[in-house]
Automatic annotation (TrEMBL):
Catalytic class of the enzyme: isomerase
The keyword Cytoplasm is assigned to this record: yes
Name of this chain's protein: Diaminopimelate epimerase
Family indicated by similarity: Belongs to the diaminopimelate epimerase family.
A single MF term (Gene Ontology): diaminopimelate epimerase activity
Keyword Isomerase: yes
GO biological process: lysine biosynthetic process via diaminopimelate
GO cellular component terms given for this protein: cytosol
Record keywords, A-Z: Cytoplasm, Isomerase
Gene: dapF_42
EC number, as in UniProt: 5.1.1.7
Organism, scientific name: bioreactor metagenome
InterPro entries: DAP_epimerase_DapF
Amino acid sequence: MKGVIAPRLEGDGNVTVDMGVPRFLPHEIPFLHDDDVVVYNLDVADETLEVSVVSMGNPHAVQVVDSVDSAPVGEHGPLIESHERFPQRVNAGFMQVVDKHAIRLRVYERGAGETLACGTGACAAAVAGIRRGLLESPVRVSTRGGDLTIAWGGEGRPVLMTGPAQTVFSGEIDL
């Protein structure tokens, strides 16, 4: 994300952030493919994976897995990240659908490897699941780093991300 972010403090102490309107056209990701479809086949490590591609200001490829605990994040993550069909590389999301309003998620971030949480990855996974008819808004996204609630009103509408905020660092710089 870039630009000004205007978070809203909720009554329960959580913070809601407008994460922008998701993009799906292959050239907006960027993803090398001629057609705009909800699910694409991606050949990785002698397997064909089904991924949904979403840009939340950064590119994401989201696949549905049976269990995030056994998902091959360490093996497939770097192969998806650097796949030739993603000329600027991509964040790889591994999404387990719990029910219509809940998922578990692991994300292999481009240039960083697997991370404990990823806000744009949570948004991309929820939106991909909604577009595929697997989920309904709002969606609780559980990662190893905590939970977020993602709400999306559909095509052309912004994604709203709600979750806890905490200080992780403070300091001073003398100039």
